[in-house]
Hints:
By secondary structure, the protein is mainly alpha-helical. It is 47% helix and 9% strand. The strands form 3 sheets. Strands 1-2-5 form a 3-stranded antiparallel β-sheet. Strands 6-7-8 form a 3-stranded antiparallel β-sheet. Helix 1 packs across helix 2, helix 3 (79-95) runs antiparallel to helix 4 and helix 4 (101-115) packs across helix 6 (143-163). The longest helix has 21 residues, at 143-163.
Amino acid sequence: MGRKKTRKQKLPNGFGSIVKRTRNGKEEFRVYAPAVYDETIGDYYQPPLGRVVSYNDGYRLLMEYNDNPKEIESKDITFGFICEKAIAQAIKECEKGKMTESNLRSIKGANNKVQKDKISNIKILKLMFFQLQEYLDSLSIGYTSKGYQINLFNRAISYAKNHLGVNINIDTNKLDIGEKPEESIFKPIDYQDVNTLWLHKQSRTSQIILILIYTGLRPSELLNIKIKNVFLNENYMIGGMKTKAGSDRLIPIHSVIKSLIKNFYNIDSEYLIHDENNKQISLKTFEIKFKELMIELKLISKNYKPYCTRHTFATRADECNFKEAILKVILGHSLKNDVTNSVYIHRKKEQIIKEIEKLNYNIIEENKIRLEVK
């Protein structure tokens, strides 16, 4: 005779919920408290109470919760949950202009890593310093990315304290994320190497690099420019990100790279820079293509990175005596601490487009193209 199944207890309205899930090939039940309204996100949510191995275990947990909800809520809420709540708050900040979209993306990326790790299941009252340190040590990411992890930790801990009344006594300032790398990791590309890129302009990767070198755009900014924001006849594009000053700025098109931009311009693609299927090229894909080209051109020993293109532009623009205020606008740097330039100087589109033509690397291939476009 088979074993008699235990009858499931029916959940009363407003009692909470039990959801069956499969995790790592094993069934589990996730238990959620009744929905409550959270003013920080302007919506209702169900606090997670924990994961159990059977439905009836979940029912018993809800019975205990409904007898003493505050005690259970504090005891069983996980680190992953408060990180999710921190992201909800960050989204609100971004919508109000108190945080840039770039920072929000970075914090969301940090949260994605937390949610995929076992640390997300640790109860917040049991979370300890060494667990956060071990988690950081396990990540194969750089100094800046680990900094965003700590930013997320601080936001999550603040949420637990201010909204759940739980004081997590962990000093995140003592977490070790290694030494900050020297800024010299990004260096200007030698001008003779810029000439080499021109000699290999049949390569689409080389074309992208040259566009970066002559616009000062961050690689991620160029890859995100949409075709609708490219105005070839007027010699400018609209794009940019990272900061308030850098978002949706005017990017002048230098005459020597106009033909390169025309090569990519395709009304069937949403983005200016696209692959053979008219799909957007990711930053990771471009980084791989960049390295492959450096190997092909025998420049790999110089340790160039995609971001070096921006340093190349900024260095040469300064050597070519760009007007400081206009250079800041092109690069997307803020003028808020520069009262004279931010208040009294009105930069017209024509001025910015004219200024970009000062850029001259004084190399053979560039000079040939200058003669061709005249």
